Amino acid sequence: MNAVGAVRTTGIYCRDDCPARPLPANTTRFPFAAAAEAAGFRACHRCRPYRRDLAAADGMPELVCRGVRLIAGGALDDATEGSLADRLGVSPRHLRRVFLQYAGVTADQLARSRRAHFARRLLDDTDLRVADIAFAAGFGSVRQLNRVLAEVFRATPRELRARRRAADRLRADGGLAVRLAHDGTLDFADALRHLSARATPAVEAVDGGTYRRTILVDGDPGMIEISRRSATELLLVAHLPRLDGLIHHVGRARRIFALDEPGAPYGAWDPFEARVHDVVRSGVPDAAAARAVMGDLARRFGTPVPGLGPAGLSRTFPRPGAALLRSLSALDLADV
């Protein structure tokens, strides 16, 4: 999904579905856009490959796939290659060698490209200030954002925003709208049926063609809405108390619909929530009864969220805590 073709005669790299059809003899394949960028190629203005999210590629060693998944989850946003190597159980030198061999770039370069691409999408899709975009995309400062965009796209944020097309800017009735691009294989109606059947009452709701849920942003509540925009895009509308770390919320939204792993089960917002679902459903085979248990846990331990009653939402999902864990361990699921 992430592989691109770089045209040596033009210095541009494209997605495989780009309307431009360069001669194969003039094209060099790269496993990731970051590798094409590191080789000196720039992104095509027609197919805009920076709109794709980072995902592990088929045929790569499991070590690289695990590393890519961790990077896509933000593992290098506030850490070093050395810490990533520790998580993967290898030396930093080995990690760098394997990434260069199979991904075409180091882990750090891949993470930097991911943040730059997300910032570029926000420049296209929104009217956010450059300072807000810097922190939403995981950069430590506007200066860092400017430097990385100049390296990756050879332009300033102002110049990149001036290039966007009239139809690029997304509009939403409140909230911040962001595209969630995918490969077109998603059965959105099936995904909504699945998510509706397992939705935690007061935390998640499916209404018509829209999935909604509450989330926590550094302890403060927010809400996201996801609907179908086109055959290859979902539309995320985020209502957040702050934009810092928006790139992480977008990644979690993608995992709910398994956009980067076509055919995989639809997911939960985070690993803890997924684990609680598994514990409850392992003891409550009946789906309706399991939802009732989940709703009770949300009402007892979730953070109240005012003003979302019309959307069927009133709590955030509980966070890990002694009271909740005692409740789960003491729950006599056989009597439910």
Description:
By secondary structure, the protein is of the alpha+beta class. It has 2 domains: 1-168, Arc Repressor Mutant, subunit A (Orthogonal Bundle); 176-335, 2-Layer Sandwich (TATA-Binding Protein). The chain has helices at residues 33-38, 62-72, 81-88, 92-102, 107-125, 130-136, 142-153, 157-162, 188-198, 246-256, 271-283, 287-301, 322-330, and strands spanning 4-7, 12-14, 27-30, 42-43, 176-181, 204-207, 210-217, 220-230, 233-239. The strands form 2 sheets. A 5-stranded antiparallel beta sheet has the order 5-9-8-7-6. Strands 3-1-2-4 form a 4-stranded mixed beta sheet. Strand 8 and strand 9 form a beta hairpin. The radius of gyration is 21 Å and the shape is globular. 37% of the residues are buried. The mean pLDDT is 90. InterPro entries: Ada-like_dom_sf (IPR035451), Ada_DNA_repair_Zn-bd (IPR004026), AlkA_N (IPR010316), AlkA_N_sf (IPR037046), AraC_XylS_family_regulators (IPR050204), Homeodomain-like_sf (IPR009057), HTH_AraC (IPR018060). Its cofactor is Zn(2+). Keywords: Activator, DNA-binding, Methyltransferase, Transcription, Transcription regulation, Transferase. Residues 65-163 form the HTH araC/xylS-type domain. This is HTH araC/xylS-type domain-containing protein.
